[in-house]
Amino acid sequence: MTDLSRLQVVPVRDVWKHEAYDFTQWMLQNADVLADVVGMELELTAAEHPVGGFSLDLIGREVGTGNVVIVENQLGPTDHGHLGQIMTYAGGTDPQTIVWCAPSFRDEHRAALDWLNERTDENTRFFGVEIAAVQIDDSRPAPLFRLVAQPNEWTKQVHAETSATPSTERELIYLEFWTELLRRIRDRHPDWTRSVKGAKGSWITMPFGSSIAWYSLVFTRNGPRVELYFGSSDAEENRLGFERIAACRDQIDTDFGAPVSYDPLPTKKACRIHVDRAEGGDVMDLDTHEELMDWFISTMERFRAATQRARVASESVIS
């Protein structure tokens, strides 16, 4: 008979003794755990962020869009006080994503998050995340997070379609195209992105491994494009990051198997390295969606491998 062990729950305060000093600081360094459970690429940038005379546990952004993300933590059951704090912090930071983390949620507080998701606009999202820790025998504890409240995307879409500024046909087709493309990408390359929902715009993003740059899959005026976009708020930082990767252009072109375009965009703050589809393509041509998705994935496979090798090489030079 196979000898199996059991997964045991560890009290959260045995793992994180203090909310601010232990759990919040751990979350700041391990944003990927939260990103996995909420299904988006996010970067937590600061703890104890001042909001008026108060301190927000964590603030960050969604990679690629720059949308603000805030997180409020508890190491005990949810209470009215923290619900009020979340509203206060949201009013002072104008976030698109609000996350409340606690070991257990009262039914009333879960219902409150559901109500907020139903009543707010399509760009505002509230998540409730139950936090726990587990171990097997004497192993090190591991985090185990679970969603207990999340946006009802169908409801959000209905609100958008019936609002004063309804989505256009193109926006809805973009949303459908990108969402299906992300599903296929996660099936084939689950390490590329945590995002589960597409966008209504002409592009989606995925992480590169740097806070100043990210991959973008884009429909330009001339057709589909895969690019590495250096788009931080610091133009000089973007330029230096671009030059470090572009210094490996010969190797990138060789690894990719064809010439890649390098655009420093000297009159703009951003820079990009990209590959365009020679045959063009329009998201509005529904009959071509299959071949366009195949092109995005196959091109990204080669482009990502080439630029990731260049990133590693550039970082080894710096160190």
Question: How does this model look, in words?
Answer:
By secondary structure, this protein is of the alpha+beta class. The protein has two domains: 7-153, Trna Endonuclease, Chain: A, domain 1 (3-Layer(aba) Sandwich), CATH 3.40.1350; 167-318, Yope Regulator, Chain: A, CATH 3.30.1460. Helix content is 41%, strand content 28%. The chain has ten helices and twelve strands. It has helices spanning 12-15, 19-29, 31-38, 80-93, 107-119, 153-162, 169-188, 235-246, 249-256, 289-318; strands at 7-10, 42-51, 54-62, 68-73, 97-102, 125-136, 142-149, 203-210, 213-220, 223-230, 261-263, 271-276. A hairpin with a 2-residue loop joins strand 2 (42-51) and strand 3 (54-62). This is DUF4268 domain-containing protein. It comes from Nocardioides massiliensis.
How large is the share of residues in beta strands?
25-35%
Structural class: alpha+beta
CATH topology of the largest domain: Yope Regulator, Chain: A
Number of domains: 2
The largest β sheet comes out as:
7 strands, mixed
* Spans of at least 5 consecutive residues with low confidence: 158-164
Count every helix, treating DSSP H or I runs of 4 or more residues as helices.
10
Shape: globular
What fraction, in percent, of the residue positions are helical? Answer: 40-55%
Oligomerization state of this entry? single chain
In N-to-C order, the SSE pattern is EHHHEEEHEHEEHHEEEHHEEH
The overall strand count is 12
Q: Please give the alpha-carbon distance between the first and last residues.
A: 51 Å
> Could you tell me the mean pLDDT?
89
In CATH's first tier, which class of the largest domain applies?
Answer: Alpha Beta
CATH architecture of the largest domain: 2-Layer Sandwich
What is the alpha-carbon Rg in Å? 22 Å
